[in-house]
Known about the structure:
- This protein starts with 21 loop residues before the first helix and ends with a helix.
- The chain has 135 residues and is mainly alpha-helical.
- The protein is globular and about 40 Å long.
- It is built from five helices and two strands; from the N terminus they run ααβαβαα.
- The protein has helices spanning 22-33, 35-61, 82-92, 110-113, 115-131; strands at residues 70-76, 97-103.
- β1, α3 (82-92) and β2 (97-103) form a beta-alpha-beta unit.
- 53% of the residues lie in helices and 10% in strands.
- It folds into two domains: 1-61, no CATH class; 64-135, no CATH class.
- It has a two-stranded parallel ribbon with strand order 1-2.
Amino acid sequence: MTLAPGGGGGIESDPNFGKLSSRDRELHLWAMSQTRNQMALQANHEMMPECVGQADAVAKEHSHPLGDKPLVDVSTDEALGPDYVKLQTELLSLSQNSKQIIAEKSVHFVIIDGPDAVIEAIRQVVQSVRNNSKL
């Protein structure tokens, strides 16, 4: 199976993919067309159900599987329904040291829509680790 660039709900299908420079879009599309990347995407797709099952099993055994490790969940501000809210709550419960950052005016690919929120999340995690402090 070949996963075509722009298909399957990838980053290319995000309406804000056009915000990237033409060079970045070209490089992304070229990289995604490479056989080795297609094989890696396919392998990831095939093993995802097993990984999700394992993660669910660990989460059921431990109330906070990540302990006190800093975890920042960068979420969209889109109204995506109760399943999305439930997922975010579950993600935040993985650690006792977690917080949520809302990337305003973003959709699924926050790395394009709200890169500042992603940068801020990374900054906060690094600071928490360096200072051995809560988020």
